[in-house]
Amino acid sequence: MTETPKNPFEMMMKQAQDMAKAMNPALENFSPTDAFKGFEAMWPTMPKEVMEMMFGNTVNKDGLDAKTRLLLTLAGLTCQGGQADSAVRQTVRHAVEAGAKKQEIVETIGQMSVFAGIPAMTRALELAQEAMGEEGDSET
Hints:
Blueprint: H1 8-23, H2 32-42, H3 48-54, H4 66-79, H5 85-97, H6 102-111, H7 113-116, H8 118-135
Helix pairs in contact: 2-5, 4-5, 4-6, 5-8, 6-8
């Protein structure tokens, strides 16, 4: 027997899970966290040229470069707190590939403490350290 959800958020999640199971029984054991980690593992880092093309330099040659765009993206993700773990790790890896130094990544995340708070900044720093442990440079 399944336990009845006690608050509106649990009820909404239960309803979404039931609907997903009805549409596809294989989704019964689906975990969004595992799905994002699978995607992250499939394409951990885009080549710099692909990032430059995808992030606008093909259309706007005088626009922001991929490194700057990725640091801005990292700032926004930091402000989301612990809601985008895979996205933060991927963005850090992509920023490193686009030429960002460890210090630039740390400063970008640190600057967001003013807007997002210390817990969000701390979580983003932990995720960045995890991502840079694989591919970080030696600069501080």
